[in-house]
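Consider a protein example.
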Amino acid sequence: MDRSFAMLLLLGFLVLLTLLFLALFAVAPIFWSCMASLLYTLSVFLFNERHHVHNAQEFENRFWTIFAVLFSTALFFAKDSPLALGIWSPSLGFLAVLISGYAMHVWDRSMHRLEMSKLVRLKRGTATSSLNRLQDAGIPIENILAQLNACLNDLDQTYIPSTINNWFYKAFVIRKEREVISIFEEAEPSVLNYLVCNSKLGLIFYKVKDHQSFKHQHRTKLIELLAIDKLSQLNVHSRVIVLHSLQTMKLPANAKAEYCVRNIILNTKQDDLSDLKTLMDSKGDYWCMNKLIFDDITSDIVRKDILDHIQRQARVQFNHIAFNTRRAKTRKRKFWRKVLSDVDDTLTCSGGSYPSGIDRRYGKKVMYPGVLGFYRELDLGTDGPDEWPEHTAGNLVFLSARPHVYKDVSEKINHAKFAQLQKMRGMHTTPSLLSGDIRSGVETLAKNDFGPLARKKFENFQQYVSIYPEFKHVFVCDNGQGDVRAAEMMVDAFPKQVEAIYVHEVQPISKTYKYDKDAWIKKSIKPYFFKTYTEAALHAVTRRPPLIRVRGLRRICENAISDFYMIQNKQWPSQKHKWDRHGELNQSLCYCNEYLTACGEKTVPLIEAERLWKDGQKVQTPFGRGEVLSFDPLFNMYEVTLDWRPLNIQLKEFKENASKDLEKSAFEKPKRLQGNDESIKTLDTVFENNEETKEICSKNIRHGVGDMDSKNPQRHPNKSFDTSIDLATPNLVNESDGEISVHESHKVTARIHCRFISKYTPPHLPVFVKEEESKSGFSFWGSRSEQEEPRSLFKKDDKCSTQFGCGTVLDYRKNSGIVVVKMSSWSATCYLNAEAVNIVSEGFFNRMLRIISTDTTKTSTSLTKKSLAQKDDVNPFTVDCILCTPYGQGRIIHALDEKYNNNNSSMVSGNQPPAKKVIVNPTKPYDTVAISLSSWVLANKTSPVLYSTVDNARRWKAIGDEERTKNSGGILSTFSSIVSQSVKKLIVGKPKRKVSDIPLEICVPKYVRFFTDGAAVKSPYGKGRVVSFRELDGVYTVALETWKMADGNYAKLYTMRDNLFHQIANGCIEGLPVLTSLGLTGTLISIQPKTSIHMIAAPTAGMVCYLQPKDVLRPLKASVNDAVLTPFGNGKLVKFRPKDDKYEIELCWGAKLIATADSLERASFNETEKAFVGMSWVLKYFFSSENDASQKRSRSNSIASAR
């Protein structure tokens, strides 16, 4: 499904949805108005996950409860509702509303409970306390865990909300919460680690509450106990569990949760910190390290402290390796490479399903052979153990373009797929996932531009590198969408962190989005395009330095073979796709075997094709009917005995065999098939065969694989081959000496690929139609006889149509069946098969007019040619003779030869004064003709001179005379051309625009202007302003303000649009506060790209400022009147002091605070503007024009700065 079809389906769905809503609204306006309001509220809730409503599980539970109550109220009490139960019985309706709200409340709580009750099972790299060790030490660990679970069950009432339970049973709840805290306080380090790893810690954090009393802040006390007080007793595995539990509880649910997370990470150092981050990403859910730092943590200060700590620890690890310390030796045995990969068309095939991908070589959702082995060997590297250790967390990460939806709705699908691959196909680790967003996805679908997807993947990679700076990164992607562009941005921004880039070639490299081969040559890392993962593995082992081991290459080849065999026949789009992939994969396996042999390793067997035709079975081939002798499974080729006897003999033999079989079946009872006999699958495709006798050469004819011995498939196990060659002639083999020989029985042996063999069809004699039957009694009025004429007869000058356009038949070669056609729509002569040429018939009026106009044209043409010949004999090229050249009209200023100018030694133009004589050397003849192009005028008011050979000048002159002759035709010629063209359009269709062999005039295109005069622009040579623009060649004249000459003027730059960009004030971003040269603070609304004008809203002055980039000084943390967040509470910014860079803030409790930029955060932005759906977005979309930015605005309340 391509993009056009997908857009049509989407449009049809939206139209049907709109019509359905209008129909329902017409039937029940009150009820469906309520439904529309509730649906809009629900969409705003789902697409605004950063809103404070999502800060705690309790808040979300209250939202869903209220939503269910409102929905049931509209359903049961609306007058036009189909279930207006409340109108008939208000008591019953009120009861139904309460039941609906309570059911939603209980269901949502159960979903939260189920999510937080999951035990995190991680692959451990270090030893942890086990149950057996604790029992051997005499510690009743099972009793302690049972006591903890009993307290949790008392706190977690299934059908009673926690708020009501705390009201009625407050003392009991407080006692149980203290008991839970005391269990963790009294636990020894080994017991504490066991309790953390085997208890429902997330649910405990959620059920232990902070009460209104200061003494009963039990949740805060429990979190501080595990994250601060007893953090030193927790191992890396337990710290991961604590972080995961805080995430599922949601960090904003407790005021100190973010600082506890900061404390856990800052107190984990070096290799332990790397293990903690890796384990956080290998849990198999979307609660990963990237989400914790960049989504869950809302404080920029906490986030900055964590990232700075990660960078410091990475530098310490690099220093250990540089000085070769003891810890460096231990570090070398671990895995320090992150493998980042795309999902669609890289891990699994999309089947060409838009917008997932474009690859149709495999079936949809089929895993590419060898991809998991390639991931494993890249993760394993060249150091450390030879095989992947069990119970070890890996470093596989998937960068997906699929957008993130509410919570983990979209991520769950991918993680379920990864779990299935890990369980059934042996994926070596549990990968993490970095998803896209809805904004980039919608923009890509709307504009068909993969730029937003590429930028989103780069942003995800940028965040990921900041978390893992001590790792190298290998990016595996495809060239179907914007992955190559994302890889280019990765290499440009992080050249030291990116180790290699592998691109799965799912379309021609020339169609790759924004791929510039010349630009990649200058980069240190270059992408490697591959079609099979064995090919990528061969490159990874042969590059310097290598990424995988030689044994790893062999393991990848073995995995690719097993993966190919696991693809079921129903998963292939067609049998041809399977044959193509079989040959493609075997080709790369041959190359890998050559390298394995050179390295002294054991080779891998090639993939054997499935046999479709058994020995002795009659088949149909393009070279005739035959019988299968043998089968070569490696090359998928059959040895077939072809029957080249005359058709009447074959038909006679077939009838005799059929009659014998019929007689035999009449006397014999049919035998019952044995249970172990399997039916051979047959291909239902039938090929059209050419029954003409083919000429057989006496020499050896060898196919690309003709020298392979089918009886010994292991004869050349490492030889490369190509099974996609189109067989033109069969490979004829004599069993005695290998020479081609035609036996007396007209039977030969040939090796033929399976794709050219089809089901056997009985022979039949051709039927010829008599010529008298095809004649028409009214042949004068139509062209029935010509249409029914055999396809093999073509006459010269016949009009025809081909797949390359319309043309005229020049010649027909009967022996080879080739038709020579001169194309009329473009200058070319085609040699085509007779089947590809269709004769265009003529009607009566067109034929009569063509005969009349042909006679008239021949007469006028002969007279014209005669007069031209006489004129040429006298003087073919004289001074001031007019010629129509491909470069425009001109006149001759230098004669052709001295024999036409022997009377005068100089030539004088009749329009020129005597002083401007052109002197010609009488002793040296001119080999060229000098033509002054009058249609071109240079800067000095003269015309350029064109020097042409004699042949070109004659041809240009003849074309000009012929055009003038055509323009002077009579009425019959004009009417004939109109009728013939009309008939031609009806028969052939609208022809392409005719392009003459030699154009008579060059049309220079005019370029469209983008930047206006005075626009501030950036160029590779510095900043400047546009001075002028030339429409003729699209060149801008730019005055470079950074280059000032000695005379006080600016240097001028002449460049095209591609080298110019609009200026943006230093560090300023649209939507954020800025400081202007007017002393005002405001918000940068937008930047006009054609003029570089910055539109700034200054609410304090009540105006909009249109300023040049130089008048926008720098960005600010907040502007005046913005609400800000400080460590001392919320407040409002009342003044900004540019001299000392201080902010004066009026706090909500009346105090005045003077703070720096680091101690405040801006909180005045509108959350709905950032969301995909919001009221402002809807109003802007429906009630604003696309050209609002370019329309003139009222300047009554605005200020503009000078250029």
